[in-house]
Amino acid sequence: MEPQKQYVLRTVEERGVRLIRLWFPDVLGQLKSFAISPAELETAFDEGMHFDGSAIDGFSRIQESDVLARPDPNTFELLPWGERDETSARMFCDIENLDGTPFEGDPRQVLKRNLRKARERGFTFYVAPEMEFFYFAEGSGTASPRPLDTGSYFDLTTADVASDLRKRTIHTLEAMGIPVEYSFHEDSPSQHEIDLRYTDALTMADNVMTFRLVVREIAMERGFYATFMPKPLPHVQGSGMHTHMSLFEGDTNAFYDPADEYRLSKIAKGFIAGLLQHAPELTAITNQLVNSYKRLIIGTEAPAHVSWARNNRSALLRVPITKKGKESSVRVEYRAPDPACNPYLAFSVMLAAGMKGIEAGYELPSETNVNVFELTAAERAAEGLHELPASLAEALDSMEGSELMAEALGEHIFEWFLRNKREEWADYRAQVTPFELERYLPTW
Amino acid sequence: MEPLLVHPDPPVPELAQALDLAGYPWKAVADELGASRLEPEGGWGGAVLVVAEEAEAAWALARALRKRDVPVEPLLLLVAGTHLGDLQLRDELFDDFCLHPFHPRELEARLRHLLWRAGGRSAPDVVAYGPLEMNLETYQATIDGRPVDLTYMEYELLKFLAQHPGRVFTRETLLSRVWGYEYYGGARTVDVHIRRLRAKLGEEHAGLITTVRSVGYRFGTSRWG
Predict the structure, then answer these.
(1) What is the rounded distance in angstroms from the CA atom of residue B64 to the CA atom of residue A60?
(2) Cβ–Cβ contact A224 with B under 8 A
């Protein structure tokens, strides 16, 4: 037996683990889980665990609905919460068809496939997301959310509940091997940001799933509610998931070129150009909720146009200025994604767009140094600035016509996602919102 | 088993004979230098030092063996009656002793017991450094007695570092020694795992692993100073 599996079996025995939770993401990036006992662990490793895929969104097909969950022993972690005598652990799973081939509806397999493609070209893909979220007093979904504080950007709010929650969260994350780079109070009341340290994209996607669970668990322990909804409050900044990315060739940062004026290599420029070129097509994946598009509006810090810059926070894509001698930290920051995305798919499509730019040798458009939000629509058009999709419907239209997205996601997920999201949009369109009632009922 | 270190060199003939009869492999060394030069690949299996005519040299060697990063254990002394007083205030330098000249049966019994105790309790099953303890048999690590939950690769990396305290390893060395094959992802993988390890060790103990600028990483400090 592989030493990794041996290690897991032994740890389960030594630490008295009672339950092993097998985790996997569905197509929308919700965490799914089922538990097995230690006695079943060896079978799970050897044969995989059968389950009915049709019970779960996106994993449903009319015929052969049975699939196998195969735990990845490298992702074994003890869960640092729960009852003392109910020690449990988790492992992420790959989902396979009964014949052992990767299941097309499994986002983890999609990301693995895209990473493999990059690897064939000699690249490792590293990512570091900045996770933003809100704490609220409750999360019923009917009442309007009540913030826990009125703090603002970088505020040090003393002894308040939210900073205590954040501290405990970071502690738990670190104990689970998810190192944190920074954390601070964000712009909006009760909004917080925790930046995760870069790691390879697959581990990071697993980390984002774990992160969202940990943040929620810790809030819930104290009777509060944490949300990654992109725009829970009107009139204040929403929550983003700015994603820093770089490609490495072995130990060398493939984005770095000391001779270039921007210190960007040809590879970096192709990657950026690819992301910009395909940004509208991949937005449905990085911003998958109706609500996502209420964040991507002019006048907030979220991007609404396709542009890049070194030091311009209104740009969609930023190349952070790095310290001299820090060539390994040369990277690009893509600012559209929000934390309600499916990280496996989001990392997949961003990588695919960047790789496409490299392979096809896209030209890097010129940097946008003006504040995009201060330009008029005509000026923006003159600058050649395209808009990001303004709604989920527009984003889906863009995505539907994209060969690149179909290839990056695979036909199965591509089709399922479009169908599912078209339904969501139809449901939304059938609503009459408070805005309409307030505005139109009295006057028309 | 690994050979026992025997001092002085050439050895006391009765000792050589007793060890041969009892079936313990051994090598005689003259001093500390010889102890490291002749050291078997897996380290010394233990040591038997005679404190008689060359008492000064024997004590110096005992001290050197104990001061190592991984001390040589068990250490049995054969002490001449006139040197019994030497044992005072030197308790940390030996595990047991026999009066010299010794009885071969007594030597064998004491050695067997010492080796049993050493094998059951420590090396090579436990790697300990400061607050960190790693049980290599059960794959468990504790810090200040509290369990640290590691993934397999984190565990392997920490084990390797903790087995060589004070040594600076380059990322490439760690990659080849710990991952053991052309691991895809290169040396950045090492950085990522070091960060995860530091995070898990907790703020208080994150300093156990230090970054040596433009070289690599070091675990703890060498007891050689």
Answers:
(1) 69
(2) no
